[in-house]
Amino acid sequence: MTTLIPWTDTASLTQITAAFLAGYGKTTRKSYAEGLRAWVGWCGEHGIDPIQAARPHIDLWARWLDEERHLAPATVMHRLCILRSFYRYLEDEAVIIK
Questions:
Q1: Looking only at Cα atoms, what is the longest distance across the chain?
Q2: Mean pLDDT of the chain
Q3: Distance CA 46, CA 57 (A)
Q4: 21/52 Cα distance (integer angstroms)
Q5: Please, what is the angle between helix 26-45 and helix 13-21, to 10°?
Q6: Which carries the bigger pLDDT value, residue 95 or residue 27?
């Protein structure tokens, strides 16, 4: 039997991300993990806590994916959809409050 532990202030980003990804199948989980790694890496390079990130940070990241990484518009949109799902999960789990 699995024991569920409620989120605490000490839950790490890795733990929260793993819980989010656990709800998806193998292919989606791999794709979403790649997108989240890219987001968290970008946040780290810019001194942004991904849990505390705001809309302007996401807008800047999308611009960076387009203009600096030269990703296709569909890929940029896919990455943004990953973030939307992730942050909705964080809201649902009361990790963040909208």
A1: 48
A2: 90
A3: 10
A4: 19
A5: 150
A6: 27
Residue 60 to residue 23: CA distance in whole angstroms: 28
Of 44, 30, 32, the C-alpha closest to 87 is: 32
Q: How many residues does the chain have?
A: 98
Whether 13 and 22 have beta carbons less than 8 Å apart is answered as no
Task: Calculate mean pLDDT across residues 15-37.
Answer: 95
C-alpha–C-alpha distance, residues 5 and 74, integer Å = 37
The answer, yes or no, to whether residue 3 has pLDDT greater than 50, is no
Give the residue among 87, 76, 77, 85 at the shortest CA–CA distance from 54.
Answer: 87
Other beta carbons within 10 angstroms of residue 89's beta carbon come to 17
Q: How far apart are CA 64 and CA 79, in angstroms?
A: 12
Report pLDDT for 8: 54
CB atoms inside a 10 Å sphere around CB 38: 17
- Amino acid, res. 4: L
